[in-house]
Amino acid sequence: MTLFDDYLLLLLAVVTALGAVFVRDLFSGVLTLAAYSFFLALLWAGLGAVDVAFTEAVVGAGLSTLFFLVALYLTSHQEEVRKQLPVRIMALGGLGILGFLLLFGSVDLPVVGDPKSLPSKHVSSHYLRKSLEETDTPNVVTAVLADYRGFDTLGETTVIFTAGIACWMLLRRRDDSAT
Amino acid sequence: MIQPLDSVIVHTLTRVITPVIQLFALYVLIHGHDSPGGGFQAGTLFAASVILPIIAFGIQGSLSVLERRAIILGGIGILLFAGIGLLPLILGGEFLNYGKLPIPGMEASARRHWGILGIEIGVTITVAATAVSIYYSLRERGEGEEK
């Protein structure tokens, strides 16, 4: 994948993200958001983060779109427009400052794949060299996620489960609660 | 109320594609060691294979008992994960140190290999159960509103 393709995908991701914000019909907004996730997944794949791309495609473009769609049946299809100018100006200013700070911070990020960058110097070289020997697992990402950083994965799974319990308690039918 | 699709194409495709999704989910889970994928992705795919029939056939196309109680399965997944993590702790290692798992006749690296598969199964169960539970709760709520 060339640099041009990356920029093209990035451009498409930004355009679809803007489209998802500006479109009035919520149904179209949900589908545009799915397209945004899909372009983002392609971008991750282009950067070599295949596991992240897989997750983004499956969860971002697939599952969350499904949740949004079924949630739309509980509400109306049209976005309610509120014309409060001061709030909008404040939001624009705040987001502008946030965007500037993020861009400002990204100047210090290392070049992708730079072996001399700080993240590459710490534990990752050990993982890359020893994970097959120590864990019998050719996919380094799986070895890191499930073994070296297994505690983080346990936490993530617990977070998802907690979200599930919360949704179940909020949304379950009341007549079902007796059983 | 959400109407089930009254289309032969959708119904037939759902019947054909659901086992394929499940097979692919199993592949993603077991092949997580060698190729991209793992518990999260496999769990989402399993959830998709349960949700798809509900979309195509309506809420009658579900097993209803399984989906309504799916959140319990999510707890079982976490218990499996934490249980595999606790076993080495009891046997004198660290929490989640799969090298100390009591599997006889194996080197530490092979034990880690199977430990990773074990916790990935736990993650798969939790993610699939949670996704199905959220979708089913929303859907049931949508059906209930009309009454």
Task: Report what the structure shows.
Chain A is mainly α and 179 residues long. Chain A has two domains: 1-81; 123-179, no CATH class. Chain A is built from eight helices and no strands. Chain A has helices spanning 3-22, 26-46, 50-72, 85-106, 118-121, 124-135, 140-148, 150-171. In chain A, α2 packs antiparallel against α3 (50-72) and α6 (124-135) crosses α7. Chain B is an all-alpha fold and 147 residues long. Chain B has one domain (8-145). The model of chain B has no long low-confidence stretch (mean pLDDT 85). Chains A and B meet through α3, α6, α7 and α8 of A and α2, α4 and α5 of B.
Distinctive features:
heterodimer, A: 179 residues, mainly alpha, 8 helices, B: 147 residues, 5 helices, 0% strand
* Average of pLDDT of chain A: 85
Secondary-structure content class of chain B: mainly alpha
Termini separation of chain B: 9 Å
- Structural class estimated from helices and strands of chain A: mainly alpha
Give the chain pair forming the largest contact, with residue counts: A-B, 46 and 55 residues
Could you give the count of β-strands of chain B?
Answer: 0
As a percent range, the share of strand residues of chain B is under 5%
Query: What's the number of structural domains of chain B?
Result: 1
Q: Major sheet of chain B, described briefly?
A: none
Tell me the helix content of chain B: over 70%
Based on DSSP secondary structure assignment, what is the total number of beta strands of chain A?
0
Low-confidence stretches of chain B: none
Outline the low-pLDDT stretches of chain A: none
Residue share in helix of chain A? over 70%
Oligomer: heterodimer
Number of helices of chain A: 8
What percent of residues of chain A are in strands? under 5%
From the alpha carbons, calculate the radius of gyration of chain B and give it in angstroms. 19 Å
Number of domains of chain A: 2
Average of per-residue pLDDT values of chain B: 85
